[in-house]
Design brief:
This protein is α/β, with parallel strands linked by helices. It folds into two domains: about 240 residues, 3-Layer(aba) Sandwich (Aspartate Aminotransferase, domain 2); about 130 residues, Aspartate Aminotransferase, domain 1. Helix 3 packs parallel to helix 9. The protein starts with 5 loop residues before the first helix and ends with a helix. The chain binds pyridoxal-5'-phosphate (PLP). It is an enzyme of class 2 (transferase). Keywords: Pyridoxal phosphate, Transferase. One of its GO terms (biological process) is transsulfuration.
Length: about 400
């Protein structure tokens, strides 16, 4: 199956990888929390790792494993873990791999909640440096003897900065650092995380992967490229596993088992069904986003359009190398004299809503909402202006989306 195309592999993945009974094409959803064994010795073997089976559904179950198999196959990785939300995946990976006294390099262009989590890490004695990752030299200069990992987003939310992901991947490899890439904006169909030498691909399943605004979820996928024997924080107990599984074992044991932010089986089912149409939805929303960005870029009431597909975008040439399409997110600054709230209130098709990666086109004034709490100084460092509006382009017919923007801009 591996040589087949992206969608062919995805729509047959549940059936072929997980082999549900009775010819079912979907893994059945099982909500059993507990798993019974006829003989107590078997239960002991499960606990002690001699038998590969489920003990308690906070750590694993058939429905969850089925989705994890599909995600691992999608990224061509060695394994995947799923979590209740994208934030649960991100925070669990960081808290289980890092410890007091370690240093972490974080992109200064990050989703607001990940950025805010940096304070929590600092409270636990983890030294965090925020870096302009569009400058590879700045990343290199930030590396210290106790640096353990570098974390960034493939296309940053909401200003759409794109770092040279391959050059940073090479840097991480040279220094033995875990390279964590949040690819929420560019799932596997758009971007080959292994080509950029990512160690862990992580982020939200709530967005493009599930795709319909009806379920929360997150994942950590190990690409198999990182040599975990170079990582000093692996607990001795987990080293009985194959070396390529050391990282995921630690995240699973310390994270899912001890911290407990697991996905529910019903959510896993909804996500796996949504995922089957990932490429179709992405092709549509990215094509529309490109056309909308081009239209807005030429409009006299729009000051700036932030979209990596535009030749004027500062990292357009890097984005062109990295991504199959330029994503479904674009942000704009209207001309100072145009009231951004009035414009948004005139939009009829576009929903005023927080979220992205939906089938519907969504808009949000970011400085007043998601990035409000961080304050003006931090927003300025991230390139977020007071009137910036972020749009997540949906799969509606392109002409209808552009017509809606056109009529709203006419009225303000
Ligand atoms: N990472 C990025 C880039 C995001 O945009 C988001 C949410 O918008 C998240 C992570 C968090 O995902 P979730 O809402 O599933 O917790």
């Amino acid at each position: 199956m591996q040589s087949k195309g992206f969608t062919t592999r995805l729509v047959h993945a549940d059936r072929t990888l997980n082999q549900p009974q009775d010819g079912a094409v979907h893994q059945p959803t099982s909500n059993s929390v507990l798993f019974e064994y006829q003989r107590v010795e078997e239960l002991v073997d499960v606990f002690q790792g001699r038998k590969n089976a489920h003990a308690y559904s906070r750590q694993s179950s058939g429905s969850i494993n089925a989705l994890q198999n599909m995600l691992a196959q999608m990224e061509e990785g060695v394994g995947a873990l799923t979590f209740a939300t994208g934030m649960a995946a991100i925070t669990t990976a960081m808290l289980t791999l890092l410890k007091h006294g370690d240093h972490l390099i974080l992109s200064q262009f990050l989703f607001g909640n990940t950025n805010s989590f940096a304070n929590t890490l600092e409270g636990f004695g983890i030294d965090v440096t925020l870096v302009d990752v569009t400058d590879v030299t700045a990343v290199k200069e930030a590396i210290k003897p106790n640096t353990r990992a570098v974390y960034l987003e493939t296309i940053a939310n909401p200003v759409t900065q794109v770092a040279d992901l391959q050059a940073i991947g090479q840097l991480c490899e040279e220094h033995g650092l875990v390279y964590m890439l949040d690819n929420t904006m560019t799932p596997a169909f758009l971007f080959d995380a292994k080509k950029a030498r990512a160690s862990l691909v992580l982020g939200s399943l709530t967005k493009y992967i599930a795709g319909h605004g009806h379920v929360l979820g997150g994942a950590v996928i190990d690409t198999g490229l990182y040599d975990w024997t170079r990582f000093p924080n692996i607990n001795e107990d987990y080293k009985s596993q194959p070396e390529e599984m050391w990282g995921l074992t630690q995240i699973k044991k310390k994270g899912l088992r001890d911290m407990g932010g697991c996905l529910t089986p019903d959510s896993a089912h909804l996500i796996s069904v949504g995922m089957e149409t990932l490429a179709l939805r992405m092709e549509k929303c990215c094509t529309s986003a490109m056309k909308l960005a081009t239209y807005l870029d030429q409009h006299d009431k729009v000051e700036t359009v932030y979209y990596p597909g535009l030749p004027s975008h500062p990292q357009h040439f890097i984005a062109r190398e990295l991504f199959k399409y330029y994503g479904g997110i674009l942000s704009i600054d209207l001309k100072p004299e145009v009231d951004c709230f009035a414009f948004m209130n005139e939009l009829q098709l576009v929903l005023n809503a927080t979220h992205l990666g939906d089938t519907r086109t969504l808009g949000i004034p970011v400085a007043h909402t998601i990035y409000y709490e961080m304050g003006a100084e931090q927003r300025a460092k991230m390139g977020i202006s007071d009137n910036m509006i972020r749009f997540s382009v949906g799969i509606e017919d392109t002409d209808d989306i552009i017509a809606d923007f056109d009529q709203a801009l006419d009225k303000v």
